[in-house]
Amino acid sequence: MRFSFLLLLILLAACVPDSTTELPTLAAFESSPTRAAVSTSTPSPIVVPVGTAEDESPLQVVTAEADYVLVTPTNPPSKTPTETETPTATPTYTPQPTRPTTATATATALIPPTRVVPFVTAVVIRSIDVVCDSTWFFILPRPDTCPATLATTSQAVYQEFENGLMIWIQHQDTIYVMYSDFGEPAWESFEDQFDEGMLEIDETWPLPPDDQLFQPRRGFGMLWRSNPAVRARIGWALDEWEVPYSSTVQVAEDDAIFLQDPYNGIVTLLAGQQDWQRYIGDGSPTRLELELIPTLTATPG
Length: 301
Description:
Elements: H1 2-15, E1 152-161, E2 164-169, E3 174-179, E4 187-191, H2 218-226, H3 228-234, E5 243-251, E6 257-260, E7 266-269, E8 276-280, E9 284-286
Antiparallel strand pairs: 1-2, 1-5, 2-3, 3-4, 5-6, 6-7, 7-8, 8-9
């Protein structure tokens, strides 16, 4: 900028005409007149102020009167940190191995305390759907025929022998003898001849061959001693005393007789004394529960 201003002054000076003339020199003066000096002073430079960051003033905050108070929200105070519980390992109890226990198999009879007699294969009664006027007192086995009589319940006595069993039914006053020797007839029935007051046992009778065998008592004993054929086929009693219980009896249309034993089993005496069956548990027909204790099963002779 200074250079431009100086150049402008030079141009102005060049354009001024030279109007001076020579004048006579006076002796009295020591020097000749000269042209008036032209001012050649250089103007001072113009300084334009430039704002700097230090010269800037902060912005003023303008406030205005109002009917409300402006509240500047502030951050809530920081939460005081709490101690965090550090989980600690809990000791775990490890059980020590124990010596394995070996179970000892024991023979369990389904119908205690009955004795075992030889097994005989019996004819299985197959049930069919029959509509009857009356119902049977048992569910299994289901006979093919309908009941001829209503079920009758009375006192009864039960006893097992070497080769069969006897059941006395009070309301019939009858002793039923079931054999398991494969002879004929398979079962028989006899009128009970025993009366109260008679001798229950004959002390003069020969002793049994084994101390685990016994002479039957009361009505069973009277029939056993007085009937050699029955005694020879059925053998000695397996218990000293008979088992009293309450039995239900029902007869089918084909004359089969159904007796309840002391263990909720069903003894079926087929018509014609041709065979008899004993139903235990699920209705499977067996003479006795020999399949439970096979080691004690006698071989039929």
